[in-house]
Amino acid sequence: MARVRMSDVAARAGVSTATVSMVLNGVGSTRVSPQTQQRVREAAEAVGYKPNSVARSLRTQQTRMVGLISDTIASTPFAGRMLAGANDVAREHGHLVILVDTEQDPDAERQALNALSGQQVDAMIYASMWHRVVEVPDGLPEDAVLLDCAPAAGGRAAVVPDEQAGGMAAVRELVTAGHRRIAFLDAEERFELVASPLRHEGYLQVLAEAGIEPDPALHARAEPVAGGGREAAQRLLDLPAGRAPTAMFCFNDRMAMGAYAAAHRRGLSVPGDLSVVGYDDQQLVAAELDPPLTTIALPHYEMGRWAMEVALGLRQADRATPYLMPCPVIRRASVGPPPAAFGD
């Protein structure tokens, strides 16, 4: 089948090929009346004209492609919403996303950067599955945007969750419900998670606002998985009467799952005997617990959109400091008033 050419569109619309070129390439099209522009587009659709993307990129110096380099996002449903947000913005503005997962392999990362540079992508995004501080790899363009990670040396457009404000929101849910003995099930320091001290600071700030003296015994650290949460919750529930918590703020939803298990083993109900708030709003965990877990959502989709908007020049970013994306409360059924038997 013969390729449909711009001259075919021109003949159908009754205009010159120069006019067709201006309209379909968006170059100088303001000199063409809206009525003529509409006629050209209708003619192009009618004859099945498909623009030559290679020729267009040579004329406009744009490939309409954005490179997104990540560690393990593509293979991790937990963070996949970041890709959805970035891809939605790209599609809305006529761009294609080229995704490369490197599994944190420096050689794979270097190859990906070289390949994307060779493709002359219009922009790049460098993304992480979880909030962390990163050493920016050599070869990453100065205008590349960091997604869910912050540059160790600063000076880059970046977006990360507002972890401290999220911690504050979580503890406020419990204080508002009437709790004063509130535990924080935290990740062990050996994991070196950026979010841990920030969420802890939010916890302490709300306790101070409420006039609650923090009890070091209620800050329990463990591996940030369900087993760790269960073990930490058991230690807290073993505290003497009057010192045991009536509520637990958990570093993540998996630790909250473990807290549920510890409570159920003792014949305690959630939230009748123990209120629990998680963090992440993790798929297949938070909403599926019994009762469904009140938690703080990581704004993956919103961060993905922000990063792509900055990469495409649709919004400005302050390179001096990462943008803090709000982490909303997802209220479900795991928070209630403290039990009367545990009166303060």
Automatic annotation (TrEMBL):
CDD domains found in the cross-reference section: HTH_LacI, PBP1_sucrose_transcription_regulator
Give the record's keywords alphabetically.
DNA-binding, Repressor, Transcription, Transcription regulation
InterPro entries named in the record: HTH_LacI, LacI/GalR-like_sensor, Lambda_DNA-bd_dom_sf, Peripla_BP_I
- One GO molecular-function annotation for this sequence? transcription cis-regulatory region binding
Matching Pfam families, A to Z? LacI (PF00356), Peripla_BP_3 (PF13377)
> Which Gene3D superfamilies does UniProt cross-reference here?
3.40.50.2300, lambda repressor-like DNA-binding domains (1.10.260.40)
Where in this chain does the record put each HTH lacI-type domain?
4-60
Q: Which PANTHER family match?
A: HTH-TYPE TRANSCRIPTIONAL REPRESSOR PURR-RELATED (PTHR30146:SF148), LACI-RELATED TRANSCRIPTIONAL REPRESSOR (PTHR30146)
Question: Under what name is this protein listed?
Answer: LacI family DNA-binding transcriptional regulator
